[in-house]
Automatic annotation (TrEMBL):
The lineage of its organism: Bacteria, Bacillati, Bacillota, Bacilli, Bacillales. The keyword Transferase applies. One of its GO terms (cellular component) is cytosol. This is Thymidylate synthase. GO terms for biological process: dTMP biosynthetic process; dTTP biosynthetic process; methylation. It comes from Gemella haemolysans ATCC 10379. Belongs to the thymidylate synthase family. Bacterial-type ThyA subfamily. PROSITE patterns: THYMIDYLATE_SYNTHASE.
């Protein structure tokens, strides 16, 4: 079961991880090299020991599939998970004239007055992204992040090519999409954490392995599990295949120090049965719309809030 596999990772990090400083200044417990496997025929691996917002998972994945890199699409679909990186670009620009937002990720946790100011400025920022096309182009774009690399890696549409290869040469060992483009890493708001994935066809079933160089285990990894499982299911459907496994291989798997209590709370909970995925008929993943995919029979424990490290 998905929760059992994931919580096993959490426990392993808490018990065996080493304390490390990191670029955010928060600090982590970290391990290097870990693998989880999820049998996709047993149910969709959306964690049940805390609620995971499937709409955020799906809208972000569709954003990647479209090759989009601007948060406007996400905001139009009530998805705020990339806001902080775009917001940072704005508040560090000469065009920003509001109150000092330096180190907003940490200050919102300890300063109630500042937190209110931050929320006000973030609201202004989001409204301008949605209503001002010029502002959106300048500050909503995150650079050459995932969608750009999937659909235009130095002129190559990797995702389209790999779908064609699965259909025409399923035994290939080259069914790979890489988000890690050394020539463009410096142009990205955040270098790709989930950096490379490979498909594998056997006995009429499609499996996928993700290599993730860096994993925020509490906030990010549950989304990554669901997102790449969903991508595998959708591509399998287009290619006329059944689903196999999602294999999740992590490099630096870490829990931030200000997530320890939340992780322990989640580990104390008993998992529910996994939900099911409902997908409308489609010809190509590149034609999919938000309303074409939904989760059904999802029973979970409540959300557990935790700060994001930017």
């Amino acid at each position: 079961m998905a929760d059992k596999e994931y919580l096993k990772l959490c426990n392993h990090i808490l018990e065996n991880g080493i304390e490390k400083e990191d670029r955010t200044g928060v600090g982590t417990k970290s391990i290097f090299g870990y693998q989880m496997k999820f049998n996709l025929s047993e149910g969709f691996p959306l964690l049940t020991t805390k609620k995971v917002n499937f709409n955020l998972v799906w809208s972000e994945l569709l954003w990647f599939i479209k090759g989009d890199t601007n948060i406007k699409f996400l905001l139009e679909n009530k998805n705020n998970i990339w806001n902080e990186w775009a917001f940072k670009k704005w508040i560090e620009s000469d065009e920003y004239t509001g109150p000092d937002m330096t180190d907003f990720g940490h200050r919102t946790l300890v300063d109630e007055k500042f937190s209110k100011q931050y929320k006000e400025q973030m609201t202004i920022f989001k409204e301008r992204i949605l209503s001002d096309e010029e502002f959106s182009k300048k500050f909503g774009d995150l650079g050459n992040v995932y969608g750009k690399q999937w659909r235009d890696f130095n002129g190559i549409d990797q995702l389209k090519n790999v779908v064609e290869q699965i259909k025409t040469n399923p035994s290939s060992r080259r069914l790979i999409v890489s988000s890690w483009n050394p020539a463009e890493v410096d142009t990205m708001a955040l270098p790709p954490c989930h950096s490379l994935f490979q498909f594998y066809v056997n006995d009429g079933k499609l499996s996928c392995q993700l290599y993730q160089r860096s994993g925020d285990v509490f906030l990010g990894v549950p989304f990554n599990i669901a997102s790449y499982s969903l991508l595998t299911i959708l591509i399998a459907k287009e290619c006329g295949l059944e689903v196999g496994e999602f294999v999740h291989t992590l490099g630096d798997a870490h829990i931030y120090k200000n997530h320890f209590d939340q992780v322990k709370e989640q580990m104390s909970r008993t998992p529910y049965s996994l939900p099911e995925l409902k997908v409308k008929d489609f010809e190509s993943i590149f034609d999919l719309k938000i309303e074409d995919v939904e989760i059904v029979n999802y029973e979970s424990h409540p959300f557990i809030k935790a700060p994001i490290a930017v």
